[in-house]
Design brief:
The protein is α/β, with parallel strands linked by helices. The protein is built from 24 helices and 21 strands. Helix content is 44%, strand content 15%.
Length: 667
Amino acid sequence: FRATESSAVHMNTRPAGWLSRIEWRLLRRNVVVERSLARWKCGKAEKEMKGCARRTLTGLSGLQTTAKAAAPRSFACGRRAAQLQSSVARSAASRSSSSCFGRRAGALRAVASEGERASADRTDMGGSRGKVVVSVSDKSGVVDLARGLVDLGYEIVSTGGSFRAISEGGVAVSQVESITNFPEMLDGRVKTLHPAVHGGILARRDLDDHMQAMEGQNFGLIDVVICNLYPFRATVTGGEDIAFQDAIEKIDIGGPTLIRAAAKNHKHVTVVVDPADYSSVLDALSGDDAKAGESLRTHLAWKAFQHVSSYDSNVAEWLWENGGSKGEETYAPPEKTVPLRLVNTLRYGENPHQKAAFYVDDSLAEDGAGGLALSTQHHGKEMSFNNFLDGDAAYSCVCDFVEPTCVIVKHTNPCGVASAHEGQDDPNDLRQAYRWAVEADPVSAFGGIVAFNRPVTADLAREIREFRSPQDGETRMFYEIVIAPGYTEEGLEILKGKSKTLRILEAAPHDQGNSKGLKQIGGGFILQEHDYLTPEDIKFEVVSEKQPTKEELEDLKFAWRCVKHVKSNAITIAKGKRLLGMGSGQPNRVKSVEIAIEKAADEIEGSVMASDAFFPFAWNDSVEKACQAGVKAIVHPGGSIRDSDAIECCNKYNVALLTTSVRHFKH
């Protein structure tokens, strides 16, 4: 028996489990039989018992030989178990010689029966290509996938709700306990966290010591893992206040562990986290192209790690905002991961030689926050890289206004802005605001982006479609994009008739309350809160002798709202809640003032001017030039050591000067 016990028999993992248990128990019980022989001294019983022992060893030897030669999950094990049971039955014929031996023979018969039952349990697994573990939260398509895998010869093992869905779909499936021999526990927190599962996933099939370790533990291999995770994001962004512990319970543990294990061992294991990949996986598993299968497994492994990474980033973001910051400033955690989801690749970047792509920010802070990235395109050519930049600049600007407003942008700068207001026949009529916005700079407006902060009606759509350039009164205005928070059905159809290429976008205003702005620099990023301050949040303080009129103060606030969205150094000149001229992006402020004055031209008399930062000089510089051109009120942040010069200059020209103590640099 010692010789038999020490012999190393390497068998396929599935029959080895029950066979080794039979082998060990038979050996143990036969040792007892041998000891009984010396005690009982019964010749006939001794002869029968020795015969029983010989037949038992013969049966074990036959099982070992068969297991070595047999293919995985061979039915021969079941036949050997039946032969062994027959041998035990013959040995039991001598039970009349000793009641003690009868009990031993009965135990041997029970062990053999256990082996026979184990073999029977595996009968329908004889042709199996491998095991598949299924544990999904998103169950779309999983029943059809399981059915396809079974048709290919795979065994399905599943957990909880996935098991019920597959079973109710009429597909053969086993519970994960059939692998672990251990029930779920801790309210389902522990289901697949077991060496029998993760050993089966992580074992390298090309390493003998891995396979021997699996055989030693009687663990089977797992070839495919289908898994996606608890809906944590949907839980914490569902619009309802959720208890802290309820959110914690939606943090998946077993799922990420399954996914990461399978992705790590993707040379041998296929991992699937996205239902969109189910059909391609079935195609690959049913094909004979090993190279194609390996390429797909590598791609799916990347996708799996990214899936878990994005999931974990949402959990980390939520925890940081819910106590994890330990009272520190929450806007800048020590480490930060931003989950981005590819929407599509773009034709090119800012220039044709640059590749580009468009991603959506899947951070929790951006959930339901609106903005251009989540817009609906109703019509026109596909969006380009520059379209996204300009479109975002236009829509961010127009959504900053309270009154019905039109903004036209070219190269991210607003070249035309106008608001409908009291004094018009219809203070809500955007048609006049649109005309004023175009007239501010018709040359720049041509080929620009037009944005509204009110839905586009049929009348407004006709105005956009038919309006001629103020330069010649004949040329229809051409635009790249029209953006609005909505369209009437008729208005949308009319606007579509303007051009086949006109991009018509519908978007909700972007709520900047919780989101942060990231800008990339070489080797890193810089982060800041959005510039959310509006004139309603700011105190306008008069520092000159002259007080602004009510109309001038309203225009100053309008100009201040505009200048926030112009690239620094930024200057805006406005009157009657419409932009007359702006200067942007100049290295010195006085040049921006000169450009704005030139744009305003003859309409500058009685206008107001806003500057995004203080005036470093006044005399024969920005302030005096504006006063001499006909500007009647000026607003700037203040804070220069020469602020007194600006005040004296405005007093000389009887111009009102106001400060805000707020700067609006934009780079």
